[in-house]
Amino acid sequence: MMIAKRQRLILTLALALAACGGADRPSYDGGLSAIDAGPPDAGTRDSGAAHDAGPADTGAAPDAGLDTTPPWVTSTEPTDDAVDLASGSRMIRIEFSEAMDPSVDALTARIMGSMSGSQITLNVSYGLDGLSADMIANLPAASRVSIDLQALRDLAGNTIEPSSATTDKVLNFRTR
Ligand SMILES: [Ca+2]
Ligand SMILES: [Ca+2]
After folding, report:
1. CATH of domain 73-175
2. CA–centroid distance, residue 65 to ligand 1 (Å)
């Protein structure tokens, strides 16, 4: 009687353990022989981490998948639509919601007014964290300047979306 009861208990434990070890068990990483502790997902396996919805990689860390969130501009200096700015050499700074692709290293400024219709190329220099971009522009007097920001993109290649800092994705200002 006691033995039969014990066997039933063992069987129940074995069934419970089998139910625990399903698709959620961490798997070995093919690249670095480390256990991938990340949650499994519906993505495609690659040669790196086992549970990975993103592009092929060789890292051991689980991959959160492709970044499809567009970055946006959080602030600019000067602010969009600023007027009455001093002419001459000036630092322009743009700050972003996430790190940006530093390979986009030039923007075009269109200038209307005293130098009507001219364009200048601005060399873009990013902060170490990629969250800010600086450029120096030599601004003519009595001009309207517009810098199109649509070439900028995050590290996954998403272009910027409108934000309160730049509703039209173009930084505009005027010099006196
Ligand atoms: Ca993004
Ligand atoms: Ca604007």
Report:
1. 2.60.40.1220
2. 11
Query: What pLDDT does 66 receive?
Result: 80
Average pLDDT taken over every residue of the chain = 77
For ligand 2, the distance from its centroid to the CA atom of residue 45, given in whole angstroms, is 43
Ligand that comes closest to the CA of residue 159:
1
Instruction: Give the C-alpha separation, 48 to 39, whole Å.
Output: 15
Residues of the chain with CATH 2.60.40.1220: 73-175
Write out pLDDT tens, residues 153-170.
999 999 999 999 999 999
In order, the DSSP letters of 34-95 are -EE-SPP-SS---SS-SSBSSS----SS-B-----PPPBEEEEESPTTEEEE--EEEEEEEE
Tell me, in angstroms, the distance from the centre of ligand 2 to residue 148's CA. Answer: 9
Cis bond leading into 78, ω under 30°?
yes
Distance (Å) from CA 170 to ligand 2 centroid: 4
pTM (2 d.p.): 0.65
